[in-house]
Write a structure and sequence with these properties.
alpha/beta; Purple Acid Phosphatase, chain A, domain 2; six-stranded mixed sheet
């Protein structure tokens, strides 16, 4: 039996990114009460879930490990502006998960760097960790666990209509079939994407083989200026995991947290 953890979009370094206790902000910071509450609530939930589920054989992260310089908001939404320090926060997350095999998909250049990609910096640091036996980063990765093939990538198109959210991952699953038929890529059993910060999942059968396509929930909470100003849809906070036995049977699970610290309220007049 092998247990696989799938995370995505922790955006370490952002005020509502995944933040271990040693990096959480003080409530003395101006206007910090809401962000401090979100950081603590999200980390407490995440840590409790991970502790209950460990050990993991593989940790696959689907991108945006750090938030970046915050150019569009002048860095006002960040715990630390330096991306190298943000990688240190991400390293604490990977240390905590403690999986011997790690696969990291490269995220959006705005966040992780258009030239010096922070996933590479993370990989170099993980190579020095004695518990990390294998680390691989790339734009598009595949892994085979007991005969079950996963197609992993960060970017996927989103949708502003609820029922349109399934279209893009279903499209990519069909493209995977075409690439595999051409002999240029492995045929996947599970296709997983990050980027959109919500979970949708579907499947179809090809013969007697089930093909599943899914987007992954995010580990960045609500509270970004971009989200408040530009986005309409809901956000899913959490992660996914599965157990695969030696015959390739998969037991699939999602863990979703309702982040009540960010609930909007109406002004009573």
């Amino acid at each position: 039996m092998k247990r696989i953890l799938f995370t995505s979009d922790p955006h370490c370094g952002h005020l509502v990114g995944l933040t271990p206790p040693s990096w959480q902000i003080s409530t003395d910071r101006p206007h910090a009460e809401k962000f401090a509450a979100v950081e603590r609530a999200c980390w407490t939930w995440f840590a409790k879930k991970i502790n209950a589920l460990r050990p993991f054989h593989v940790h696959a992260c689907l991108g945006d490990i750090v938030d970046g310089t915050g150019l569009r908001s002048g860095g006002s939404e960040l715990i630390v502006v330096d991306r190298n320090q943000q990688v240190e926060i991400a390293l604490e997350v990977f240390d905590f998960i403690h999986a011997p095999v790690n696969i990291v998909c490269k995220g959006t250049p705005y966040h992780t760097g258009p030239v010096e990609e922070m996933e590479t910096t993370l990989e170099m640091s993980l190579r020095d960790r004695p518990w990390c036996k294998t680390i691989k980063t790339g734009d598009h990765e595949w892994m085979d666990v007991n005969g079950v093939v996963f197609d992993l990538k960060h970017h996927i198109g989103g949708s502003q209509i609820p029922h349109g959210r399934w279209t893009a991952p279903a499209r990519d699953e069909t493209w995977n079939a075409i690439w595999a038929e051409s002999g240029a890529a492995p045929r996947s059993d599970y296709l997983l994407r990050g980027h959109v910060h919500y979970l949708v999942e579907g499947h179809r059968y090809v013969g007697n083989r089930r093909r599943t396509f899914s987007t992954c929930p995010a580990l960045q909470g609500l509270g970004t200026r971009f989200g408040k100003k530009k986005c309409s849809g809901t956000v899913d906070y959490g992660f996914m995991w599965c157990d695969i036995d030696d015959k390739g049977a998969v037991q699939w699970h999602e863990e979703i947290m309702p982040v009540t610290a960010q609930k909007a309220t109406a002004l009573v007049v």
